[in-house]
Task: inverse folding
């Protein structure tokens, strides 16, 4: 179950990563966020961020040119 959805379509690197990091800081452990982006660089940058900060990439989907990340706060 997703607790929050944020749409960062239209933003270019590094903004989707920075905004995702900021949003994750406001969340509690176990909460799930859906992040929607259309910047192709985010496909590697967001997983790299999650690896660095220890949060979990539950799923990555592609839909109509958008990348949809489902992330669980550690």
Result:
């Amino acid at each position: 179950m997703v607790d929050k959805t944020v749409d960062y379509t239209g933003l270019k690197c590094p903004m989707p990563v920075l905004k995702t990091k900021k949003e994750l800081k406001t969340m509690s452990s176990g909460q799930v966020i859906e992040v929607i982006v259309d910047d192709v660089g985010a496909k590697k940058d967001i997983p790299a961020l999650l690896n660095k900060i220890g949060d979990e990439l539950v799923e990555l989907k592609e839909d109509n040119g958008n990348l949809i990340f489902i992330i669980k706060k550690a």
